[in-house]
Amino acid sequence: MQRRDLLRLSLGASLFLSSVSLIGCSAETPAANYQALRDDDLPALRALIAVVLADTAASDEWVLPSLDRKLAALSPQMLKLTRQLFDVLNLPLTRGPLTGVWGAWEQASADQVTAFLQRWQNSSLDLLRMGHAALLQLLQMAWYECPQAWAACSYPGPPKI
């Protein structure tokens, strides 16, 4: 990527995310029993976990707390960017056109979520491809941090010191 392309991407992303924040994003208040995840984030994340981690023994009850710990450890700027990504998924004004999921995440089928992920993965927009990569990396890191994931990949766990 050349410097000019990076500047264009940064400008476009800033304008887009600024306009989304003006529309009215989710509250900054964490959901009950979470440090960083908000109530509005949970339905989309549950739908994504069911698809992204479908071939694993992953469960919301293990992945969401792990993800929350990871998000709570982020710098304020990185947490803000991650929340903006979640806001794009949560706001009806952006969710439908950008993801193809026009209704609530709770009613989205696995096929709809898969189509959304493929849409972002194959997008001509760098910002959507980066969003796709970020979502997958966050969920996979959160799952593979859980001791429940270790048995499937023959990992004995971290060494005891």
Automatic annotation (TrEMBL):
Which UniProt keywords are present, listed alphabetically?
A: Signal
Instruction: Quote the PROSITE patterns the UniProt record gives.
Output: PROKAR_LIPOPROTEIN
Query: Highest taxon of the source?
Result: Bacteria
- The secretion signal range is 1-26
Q: Specify the protein name.
A: Twin-arginine translocation pathway signal protein
